[in-house]
Structures are given as structure tokens and as C-alpha cells.
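Sorry, I am new here, but would you mind making up a protein's amino acid sequence and the C-alpha cells describing how it folds?
***
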Amino acid sequence: MEMVRERLLDAVEARREELIALTQELVRVPTRNPPGENYREICQLLGARLRKSGFAVEYLRAEGAPGDCDAFPRWNVVARREGRGPGECVHFNSHVDVVEEGRGWSHDPFAATLEGGRIYGRGTCDMKGGLAASVIAVEAFLEVCPDYTGAIEISGTADEESGGFGGVAWLAERGYFSPRRVQHVIIPEPLHKDRICLGHRGVWWAEVETRGRIAHGSMPFLGDCAVRHMGAVLAELERTLFPALEKRLTETPVIPEGARRPTLNINSFHGGQAENEGNATGLPSACVPDSCRMVIDRRIIWEEDMEEVQREFTEVLERVRARRENFAYDIRELFRVYPSMTARDAPVVNTVSKAVAEVLGRPAGYVVSPGTYDQKHIDRIGRLKNCIAYGPGILELAHQPDEYVEVQDMVDSAKVMALALKDLLPSG
């Protein structure tokens, strides 16, 4: 048995250059979301490689999902390989979309430059490095343990960066993450190679609109400025809600430390006429704005109740209305996600924890993610609780300029995944 485990580790190590090359190949497909570019291309890249290892491959378009259209179809790939006999299924799920590159890069964000033991590029850390590591881990496992029982699945899914509704949610609604089909799920999100992520905070997104009355900008006293009304809302948030959130602290091991408290982010703010709206000069009309919209991103800890979170925010608006003449507002929920948490003694947690200790020589840490990821859909829609995030990369690098992943972290994580497969899928 010990000889098999050593052979597994050696088989991953021998694929170091392949791991680098696969990561670079994935990153060089710019799958920006929005709008959702090149999903079909990256799914075919994965499917072609996995077919060579005996996987049956499905390409699935999430027709009818938010964002799906002929210009930017939401394609997913699901590959499955059966073992020599019946048994449990281990599924590695990775999202293939990446956020926009943004400004401030010193490397080409889609060149996947290898420099100093790191691969730089958008999506290297979040999470194409993890996807590549899972593929290499599976290929090494198939070489050393070809007579395993059970099944292995690998999926590349769409739209995690915009909620996962055209990816894992759509698949879960169709039974792809049913406990009858899949028993263990590992999502190689970048939560550090020595940590197992058990779940994530919840989220409530909403759009608030304050209303006013349009008038000539030279005579604002004849109108009612919706932006000023929204300014009063911001002032009340600063006065009451932000300080209240600072006083709350979860008992769960959320990282980084600041995320152990519930948070509120002002995601966007729009007031008045757009400067480029039907105007060649780029200047707006001289008008008092009669509408102002703000999108909020409220992150929720386990000790909070979703309904109370909404009520607490509405009370802010009501306090402003009580003090402010002609104040009127609308609030519209955009979406909600409840916090998710896998038990620390779940089978996949114990198995990966053992592998981390074996590969790295130290006990695994247990963390919770500050933001949501696709575990929410596997949990809530698929009803599958035996799910974790584990993969290479440093969480704080996600969505940053000069995002990178360490090659050694990918190799070590692939070794952990290969050992976990050995323990979850018996072989002769």
C-alpha cells in the first residue's frame, strides 16, 4: 500500500511540466465573464484531453439560463469515467470563467507567463490552476490505479463569477449533483494548499432606488434631487448599520479575519442622466435627477437570519423617510444565497485532511470562504452535503492585477487530490 502511494506521488511529480503547460493552455483561452466569452472553446479543450484518458464527455449548453444567448452561449463540460466495478463517484468541479483583467498589470493577463516558479495571468489562481491540478491528479491516479472501483467525474462549468446559474446551478437542477450520482465533490478553488474550505458566507444583493422630480439644473429648487435622497441613505448607513455590523463576529473560521464579520459593499451607484446617453457631446442635459439607484452586496454570517438582514436594511430606509420630506424609495432583491457549511467530519473532509498531512507534513487547516462559490448550488439544489473547496492558490490574489499561481502549490495540491482518490475509490 505504501508503495502505491509513493508511486502516485511520483506520477504527479513526473507530470510537472504537463501541469504547467495545461495551466498555460487554459489561461490563454480568455473566458471573460461578463459577457461569457469562449466557453465552448475551453470546454472542447478539456473534453478532448479527457477523452484520451477514457472519459465519456458531454457538452451541455445551459439554454434558458441567465446570460445564455446565441452570441454568448453558456457551455459546460461534464466528463465521467467508470471503474472496473460499482462504487462511489468523486467529482472535481471547476468554473472556467474569469473576471475582467482590469488595470495595473505588469504581465500580459492572457499570456500565462512562467516566471520565478509562478504562472501569471487572469484565472491562474481563480481557478484554472486548480482545474489543471485536478486533471493531472486524475491522470496520475489512472496510471497507478487503473483497476479502481466507482467513478470519476471532472466538470468545467460556466458563470461562477456571476452566480453560477448557467453552470453548476443548471446542472444541479438536472440531477448532475444528485447524491445518487455523485458522492464526493472537490472544488479546486484557491483557498491555500494546506487548508480545506468547508463552506462560505451567505449573500443578499438588492437594488435601492430613490425617486425625485426632474427640473432645470439652473433652478434645482423647482425639482427634487434623487441623488441627495440617496446621499441621506448613505449617511444613515454610515451612522447606524456599518457600526452595527462591526460589532458582530462569527464563530466559524472565515478568512481573511475581516470577513468574520458581516459586511456591506456599495456595489454600484447611478444617479441622473448618463453622460453618453444619446448625446454626441458627452455631456448630460441640465436636469435635476429624478432617479438614483444603488446596488448593495450584503454578506451574511451563520449567526444571522436572512429575513432579519432584509428587515434591518429596510429599517434604515424607513428612518430616512421619517426625517426627510418627499423621500420615496423602491427596493428590489437581485438574489440571495444562504450560508453553506460541510461538517468537519464528512468523508471528503477527513480524506483530504489525511492527504494534506501526508503531502505537506503538517495538519490541514479548516477555513470558510468570505465569498460564495458553487458549493451553494451543490448543497441547496443538489442536496449533496459532502462537498469542499480545496485547491492551489492564494485567495487574496483572486481578481487582482498580476494574479498568479505557484507551480509548486499546484503540484502539491495535485498530489493531495491523487491520494484522496486512492482512499475514496478502492482498487485491487
